[in-house]
Specification:
With 300 residues, the protein is α+β, with helices and mostly antiparallel strands. Helix content is 36%, strand content 26%. The protein is globular and about 60 Å long.
Length: 300
């Protein structure tokens, strides 16, 4: 990995080193895992560097505006942040650090007097109680449970859940392509980015830590989920796609994937809504127990 100010793209060979850094951190932010960096490496042009023993991650938003993550590490953090800001100025860009978590703000930013920071609600991650999403019990999940049961009853004997293996990857890619044909639009560029990232994760399934599940209906893959451990108590779901024409399939897959793969985790991070109204409505409908706030930092 190059020394700052040189950066290079994320490579699959980085997995062991980067995963060890995140394991030591025990993060709650959905971006802070190697799978996310790798699957979105082209979408967000993720690039890596080292400074003062810290990992630096540079990225671009969907509008192609560059920014930096907070340094991943604990060495000379104030000096590192200052150098990062100067670097962005040298590029002629707005000096900004995004995807900052509350612990980082509290420890390194709030009392420094050098920076201003604000929450970015569109980037906040939704966190749910894993057991609640598996059981879907009680009044607040009444509609979800009914839809799940309707799917099970309608397709009884015609569907099965299976762990995603390499033999099923081609069909999972076909489903992803079908999802994009129905959902991808220039008004929502994240849909194209999500599709590209999903394809990347599927292509590299055996090289990543992610677990995958699919639901076959009449022998064809009609639902797909990808997720992994984010920290010892929390899983993260990177991908959830299904044939929306099969009523209740999304609700079944959401519940079954967690039951089969992540029942041992207290909570699950289902990532952000990017400010998209329909996605926000969907994520709120599953009754999150809290949000993982993310902040943007700028010099005063």
């Amino acid at each position: 990995m190059p020394a700052f100010p040189q950066f290079r793209p994320v490579e699959i060979e980085d997995r062991e080193n980067i995963e060890s850094l995140f394991t030591a951190m025990q993060p709650e932010v959905s971006e802070l895992n190697f799978t996310n960096l790798y699957m979105f490496r082209h979408v967000h042009d993720y690039r890596l560097s080292l400074l003062n023993g810290n990992l630096l991650i540079m990225a671009k938003s969907y509008s192609k505006v560059p920014y930096l993550f907070p340094p991943i590490g604990d060495s000379m953090v104030p000096e590192t942040v200052s150098a990062m800001m100067d670097y962005m100025r040298g590029l002629g860009e707005d000096p900004v650090v995004s995807i900052a978590w509350k612990g980082f703000i509290d420890r390194h930013i709030a009392g420094s007097g050098e920076y201003v920071f604000e929450a970015d609600p569109d980037s906040a991650d939704y966190v749910y109680d894993t057991g609640e999403l598996i059981e879907l019990s009680g009044r607040k999940f009444h509609d979800k449970k009914n839809l799940k049961n309707r799917f099970v009853k309608t397709y009884k004997g015609r569907f099965e859940y299976r762990r995603l293996t390499t033999e099923l990857v081609t069909e999972a890619m076909e489903l992803t392509g079908e999802w994009c044909r129905g959902k991808c639009t220039v008004d929502s560029p994240s849909t194209f980015g999500e599709t590209e990232a999903t394809m990347c994760a599927l292509e590299s399934l055996d090289s990543l830590s992610t677990k995958g599940g699919v639901v076959l209906v009449d022998g064809k893959v009609q639902a797909l989920s990808l997720g992994e451990e984010l920290n010892r108590n929390m899983a993260v779901v990177h991908v959830e796609k299904a044939n929306a024409d099969l009523q209740g399939l999304y609700q079944y897959m959401s519940s079954e994937f967690l039951a089969r793969e992540f029942s041992g985790y207290r909570s699950v991070n289902r990532e952000q809504d990017l400010g998209e109204p329909n996605l926000r409505k969907s994520k709120l409908s599953y009754n999150p127990i809290r949000m993982v706030e993310k902040y943007t930092i700028r010099p005063k």
